[in-house]
Design goal:
The protein is 13% helix and 48% strand. A 6-stranded antiparallel beta sheet has the order 4-3-2-1-5-6. The protein is mostly beta strands. It contains 1 helix and 6 strands, in the order αββββββ. The longest helix is centred in the N-terminal third of the chain and has 12 residues. A hairpin with a 4-residue loop joins β5 and β6. The protein has a single domain, classed as Roll (SH3 type barrels).
Length: 89
């Protein structure tokens, strides 16, 4: 289990899960400890839980990455409309 993982609210997880079910194309802002913020564009394809942390699976730039949900700061659609925002930032 990740000792530093901060779970997101169940309702917020449900919103992200719905985006994955719809395979939504997004732009998202992601921040990992000790690294600069990144903006990624791609398609949300799944959510996963392992090792005590929750993840979003993003297809982008020819690769598939798992991003910890507590590191996602904002998700926008292709037109720049906000779809989801981390409440604790």
């Amino acid at each position: 289990m990740h000792k530093d993982y901060q779970p997101i609210a169940c309702g917020a997880y449900d919103e992200i899960e719905l985006l994955a079910m719809r395979r939504t194309e997004v732009s998202l802002v992601y921040h990992e400890p000790e690294r600069p913020r990144r903006t990624l564009q791609g398609r949300i394809v799944d959510t996963r839980v392992h090792d005590g942390a929750e993840y979003l699976v993003l297809d982008h730039a020819g690769s598939r990455d798992e991003l910890r949900l507590d590191g996602i700061m904002r998700i926008e659609d292709r037109d720049g409309r906000e779809l989801w925002r981390q409440k604790n930032v």
